[in-house]
Write a structure and sequence with these properties.
Elements: H1 3-19, E1 29-37, E2 46-48, E3 57-65, E4 74-81, E5 87-94, E6 98-100, E7 107-116, E8 122-130
Antiparallel strand pairs: 1-8, 2-7, 3-6, 3-8, 4-5, 4-7
Length: 131
């Protein structure tokens, strides 16, 4: 197993442990990284069939910005992908941890970087999304 896979597995396990009430088996999840994102950059989209009671969460690990002040926080908004303007499911402040939107209805979703406290570019070594 390479270092990135091990690190992703550890971040995922830590995030699941922090979620507390999250069942052991989520319907779906994916992990990735973010490189040089600016405000309004979007994640990939995923289909939540809502076949379980698992909350939708996004976890960040290894966060940095191009600012001399370093990383403080990022505003992340979850969107429901619909015909016409996509529906905001609310913004959360991620301080290089995990944020949750609770159990969402069946639909296609994605998240967008909607704010960055310091800097113009966000880099996240480990991104973990569960739904």
């Amino acid at each position: 197993m390479n270092r990135r896979t091990v690190r992703g597995a550890l971040v995922g396990a830590a995030l699941l442990g922090l979620a507390g009430t999250t069942p052991a088996y989520a319907e779906g999840s994916w992990s990735s990284s973010i490189g040089g994102w600016q405000v309004n950059a979007e994640s990939r989209r995923w289909d939540d069939r809502n076949s379980d009671d698992v909350a939708t969460l996004v976890g960040f690990g290894g966060c940095s910005t191009d600012s001399g002040s370093g990383f403080s926080s990022a505003s992340v908004t979850l969107y429901k992908d619909v015909f016409g303007p996509d529906e905001s499911q609310g913004a959360r402040t991620n301080t290089c941890n995990y944020v949750s939107w609770g159990d969402k209805a069946a639909a296609k979703y994605y998240f967008r970087l909607t704010g960055l406290k310091f800097g113009q570019y966000l880099t996240v070594q480990d991104v973990y999304t569960q739904y």
